[in-house]
Amino acid sequence: MSYKKKMLLIYLVLGLVWIVFTDYLVLMLDLGTYLSIQKIKGIIFVVLTGFFIYYILGKREEVELLKNEKEKLTTLINSMVDFVNFKDGEGRWIESNEFGLKLFQLEDVDYRGKTDAELAKFTDFYHDALNYCMTSDEETWQAAKVTRCEEVIPLPNGDEKTFDTIKVPLFKPNKERKGLVVIGRDITERKLAEKQMKENELKYKSLFKYNPELVFMVDLNGTITDLNPKFEPLTAYSDDEAMGTPIFNYICEKDKTRIFEAFNAVIKEKRAKTNREVAICHKEGKKVIAHFAFVPIIIDNETTGIIGYATDITQILETEEKLKTTEKLAVIGELAAGIAHEIRNPLTSLKGFVQMFQSESKKENFIHTIMLDELDRINSIVSELLVLSRPQEITFSKKNINHSIKDVLTLLESEMNLHGVSVDFQTEDDPTLLDCEPNQFKQLFINLLKNAIEAEAKNICIHIKKQDDSIIVSIADNGQGISEERIKKLGEPFYSEKEKGTGLGLTVSFKIVEAHNGTIKYDSKVGTGTTVTMTFPTKED
């Protein structure tokens, strides 16, 4: 029965009861003048009727207000892009917006008063989804609090929509179930964006973390904020040591100004800058040269930081230097071979004629002796040039290198006496046998000892010792010493600071050591002296 009919029925019943009851009461009590009593009855009836009408009008206003509010609510929920649904305590649908009805294909269904299971019969595609809603609703009722979850709803075209679903249970004061509010926000686009962002983040991390070169991030002050694992191999400093420190701390002093200017230019000009051959301060003092690049991090047209890239080019530079040396040696080899060939032909004739003159001379002529000595000297120079030419097959034999050094000391004795040089020769009692080419070894020791004499050394210490499967020969002098920059270039053809030097002596020496699978190392300090250490393997290769 409608609200209007109920109010009308109540009014009629109360009116009839009033008339009959009051008339009966007047007759029974015989209260006097009938007309006066009827007037009083009428007045009371009018007053009561007025109150009733006032009450009815008030209720009508409330109904109209509720109706207006319901229309507003309906307009509001229908304008929302979210799924909104109101259910009673039994799970029956009370109200749903158009978005929800369209989502579950219930636009033409009288859904009010029906449960999810009953509505599932109207759609085959969403049959299982609606039945699952009952299970999800029950979980919320059991939790007795607001629940939130992500639900994936399939679409007829094969796509899916993801909803962030909030369910709010309402209870009566006696804890009975009163109603359930279900709000589902479509977060499909957000989930896709999050997925894309996550994929981009993984790509960025892969590019950053697994980059074969050093990649680092710094703020506008140059303080390191992030590093990839390549920092420690390049500098020997751990990530924990480097994080929060300026990147400029790891640049050698000679290049620091150049890097600082490039860094500021990136911030100011908002474009990448590169710097070649930057010396890195290695923790263990190793020589490391890197190629640097700075790229600005621009957000909202403002530079917020800088990404740096560093490529270790130490080996590349060393290889380039070796290639240059190899090219020089190749040219020298071709030139030396040609010169040696051209010199030796007339040299043989000259030596033969001098020997013939010497044999025919009745008296010993010191001029012949001098000429033969000088011709032998020219021949030795030619032999030195041949060492620089194409590799020749060398005949190795077991020799005691103690004897080789003694022969060289005997040869250079007069020259050392002339310059006031003393020699301290120390060796082990056991024969230091080495598989070598004796003449080349003598040439090696002659070159090294002459360098010591020309460096104005007054004392030369030669020490030979066996160590495991190697023989170590060290030649130390107290001469002028060699600077660090000069040591780096020792062995390069035509590099010499002597007035008439060609730099070929050490080139030949290095080549002889290399031919015997040995190593040569220079330790020197200007004003103190130089120590040359050579290590030769005793095992045959």
The rough form would be described as rod-shaped
Any idea what the radius of gyration is?
A: 54 Å
Please, how many helices?
16
Strand order of the largest sheet: 2-1-5-4-3
Cα distance, first to last residue? 115 Å
Poorly predicted runs are none
Describe what you observe in this structure.
It is a single chain. This protein has helices at residues 3-29, 34-79, 98-103, 116-119, 127-143, 188-209, 231-235, 239-242, 253-269, 314-360, 366-387, 401-411, 413-418, 438-454, 484-489, 504-515; strands at residues 83-88, 93-96, 147-154, 160-171, 177-186, 214-218, 224-227, 273-281, 287-299, 302-312, 397-400, 422-426, 433-436, 459-467, 470-477, 519-525, 529-537. With 541 residues, the protein is α+β, with helices and mostly antiparallel strands. The strands form four sheets. Strands 2-1-5-4-3 form a five-stranded antiparallel β-sheet, with helices on both faces. A five-stranded antiparallel β-sheet has the order 7-6-10-9-8. Strands 12-14-15-17-16 form a five-stranded mixed β-sheet, covered by helices on one side. Helix 12 (401-411) packs across helix 14 and helix 14 packs antiparallel against helix 16 (504-515). The termini are far apart. Residues 200-270 form the PAS domain.
